[in-house]
Amino acid sequence: MRWLYAAAALLLVGLVSSTGAATRSDIGGPFQLTNQNGQRVNERSFGEPVLLYFGFMTCPAICPTDLAKMARISRQLQQQQGIKVRPVFVTIDPERDTPGKLKAYVKYFASDFVGLTGSAQEIAHITDAYHVYYKKVPSGDKSDQYMMDHSTILFLLDSQGRYLKHFGRAMDEKDIEQQVVTALADGA
């Protein structure tokens, strides 16, 4: 029986390595959204690699923590490796997170941070492309009292807006920095 488990484990390792993150074509793709300045942008608008995160402004703890982590990673990559990576926040709550509100919010984390919003359909399109889960969860008696449940994945895109890799929330910042350096070198 032990050999059966070993064979299954080897098969799983083979499947995982044959569908490595850098070769995934089912994650990401074209999008058009509105930035915090009210300008329309797409996946190629940044002209540099991007760290992309999906969340919402009224998130009490998770999103601010993750956005601060993104800003630190971006700053460290610039200072220690000379690699410019733009932190980009995509709201999953376009009803409340307008460009004007996003402008003040993302500036809190870093001056080069970009906030993106759009119509409900545009947000659904980009979250589908990145396989991001989100759902409105009522939190009071009124329809405008709600929270957003969502996945917390950080995505790395190349300078052309193509998906390279993603990172789980629990991953250490230094590990992410090293993997960003490696992924950008491999993708160049």
Q: Using the coordinates above, name the CATH class.
A: Alpha Beta
User: Which spans of ≥5 residues are poorly predicted at pLDDT below 50?
Assistant: 1-23
Distance between the termini: 45 Å
Q: Write down the CATH topology.
A: Glutaredoxin
What gyration radius follows from the Cα positions, in whole Å? Answer: 18 Å
CATH superfamily: Glutaredoxin
The number of helical runs is 5
Structural class by sheet pairing and helices: alpha+beta
Write the H/E string, N to C: HEEEHEHEHEEEEH
Q: Overview of this structure, please?
A:
With 188 residues, this protein is α+β, with helices and mostly antiparallel strands. The protein has a single domain (29-187), classed as Glutaredoxin (3-Layer(aba) Sandwich), CATH 3.40.30.10. It is 39% helix and 22% strand. It is built from five helices and nine strands. The protein has helices at residues 2-18, 62-81, 99-109, 120-129, 173-187, and strands spanning 32-35, 40-42, 50-55, 86-91, 114-117, 134-138, 146-150, 154-157, 163-167. The chain has a seven-stranded mixed β-sheet with strand order 2-1-5-4-3-8-9. A two-stranded antiparallel ribbon has the order 6-7. Helix 2 links the parallel strand 3 and strand 4 (86-91). The longest helix has 20 residues, at 62-81. The chain is globular, with a radius of gyration of 18 Å. The chain starts with a helix and ends with a helix.
